[in-house]
Write a structure and sequence with these properties.
The structure is a single chain. The chain is mainly alpha-helical and 397 residues long. It has one domain: Growth Hormone, Chain: A (Up-down Bundle), CATH 1.20.1250.20. It has 20 helices and no strands. It starts with a helix and ends in a 5-residue tail after the last helix. About 2% of the residues have low confidence.
């Protein structure tokens, strides 16, 4: 990659890291916050509804705005807004309504990243699939780092400190945007650019698939730390037996979650290679199909079998993302790259935010493990929609 492409990937990779870090601090604190706020786990989960809803439904207006004003000022707004709301969450950590409001602000500003950052890669990096893979790796590192860092910070200094750390990292991203030079590609203009590659019916089918994938993704990420804390007590005792006598179940659960998301980062790289070497449509289908047995096992096991199945599931669930993002780039007009990714994330994270409520109700009525029976059913529908997409489109190199 040339220096211009490397500068684009540098800022977008850190932005992707932070967008997911911002959203995964809360799930790692669900059980501790339940005790601090004197709420049930289901009630605590529902405090994050606005965070995940705004993270998703604002993606399209953010994308439309980015198509008009450019990615650089929008990325700066992302870091500044999320950092300020993180400070607010730290200050109001013991007030349910104020904490929910600040969490909503974190989701609102974090929603800028995907349409701004992924559109910038689609327009400015020639090897799109590998660019998405590298970007996805850093997103997964954010997913992996957030529960581990949050668990450690909570263990030493408490929940308030976890959101102070979130704020400081976002402010570091703002400083990087000021210091680094990012040369944006010229945005496409004119009717020809607006209509080119306008495969609207296949793109709508892809949007349905991505919406279902977003539901599965959000159900998984919002419940996984709590699932491990409740379903892996033997693993926690084993860790304590290694000499970590004072380690909490919460910290062990966040460590297991972090390990899984690191493996997911490997899946991102593998997915990028598959998407570059083979037809990304078929890779997209195969990765989801392989994930189905793993998520079914997650619904009915505990301890080490649960952890092993989670490794497999997250490897393929996250590994398909470079191929999915490549398909968005292939099936959207050049003048609307940011808006196309905005439309994607309105559905994947906006509609996916309903998964927060569904997960809370399923966990309260049937147990947290059965959240993954719901995810398995959604995965069947997802694979079917990808099959329709393959039928309606031509082979892709």
């Amino acid at each position: 990659m040339n220096p211009k492409e490397r500068s684009i990937l540098t800022v977008t990779c850190f932005g992707h890291f932070m967008s997911h870090f911002n959203m995964l601090v809360f799930p790692a604190l669900v059980i501790p916050l339940s005790k601090i706020l004197n709420l049930s786990m289901a009630q605590t989960l529902e405090l994050s509804f606005w965070q995940y809803l705004l993270f998703g439904i604002t993606a399209l207006p953010w994308g439309l705005t980015t198509d008009r004003v450019g990615a650089r000022p929008m990325m700066m707004l992302f870091f500044l807004g999320a950092g300020l709301c993180g400070l607010g969450a730290a200050f109001f950590i013991d007030s349910p309504w104020a904490l929910s409001l600040c969490l909503g602000g974190i989701g609102l500003f974090s929603g800028i990243y995907h349409p701004a950052g992924l559109g910038l890669i689609a327009r400015g990096v020639e090897r799109v699939s590998m660019g998405m893979a590298y970007n996805g790796i850093f997103g997964n590192l954010g997913l992996a780092t957030a529960p581990l860092v949050t668990g450690l910070v909570f263990w030493f200094w408490g929940a308030r400190a976890a959101y102070i750390v979130l704020a400081l990292l976002n402010f570091a991203g703002l400083v990087s945007m000021v210091v680094m030079r990012v040369d944006e590609p010229a945005r496409a203009q004119g009717q020809e650019a607006r209509s080119a590659n306008g495969l609207w019916v296949p793109f709508l089918i892809l949007l349905v698939a991505m919406m279902l994938g977003g539901f599965a993704y959000r159900c998984t990420t919002v419940t996984l730390p709590a699932l491990f804390e409740l379903k892996t007590p033997f693993v926690a005792e084993w860790v304590r037996g290694l000499g970590w006598a004072g380690v909490s179940g919460n910290l062990v659960a966040t460590m297991l979650t972090s390990i899984i998301f690191v493996v997911g980062a490997v899946g991102q790289y593998c997915g990028g290679r598959v998407g570059e070497r083979f037809d990304p449509r078929w890779g997209y289908l195969i990765f989801h199909a392989i994930s189905l047995p793993a998520v079914l096992i997650m619904a009915w096991t505990a301890e080490l079998p649960l952890f092993a199945a989670s490794l497999v599931y997250l490897f393929f669930l996250l590994g398909m993302q470079p191929m999915e993002n490549t398909l968005v780039a292939r099936l959207s007009p050049p003048a609307f790259k940011h808006s196309a990714y905005g439309a994607k994330f309105v559905l994947t994270f906006g509609v996916g935010s309903v998964a927060v409520i569904v997960a809370g109700k399923v966990a309260a009525d049937w147990g947290i493990s059965q959240v993954f029976s719901v995810v398995a059913a959604v995965t069947v529908l997802l694979a079917a929609s990808i099959g329709v997409l393959i039928y309606r489109t031509k082979p892709m190199r």
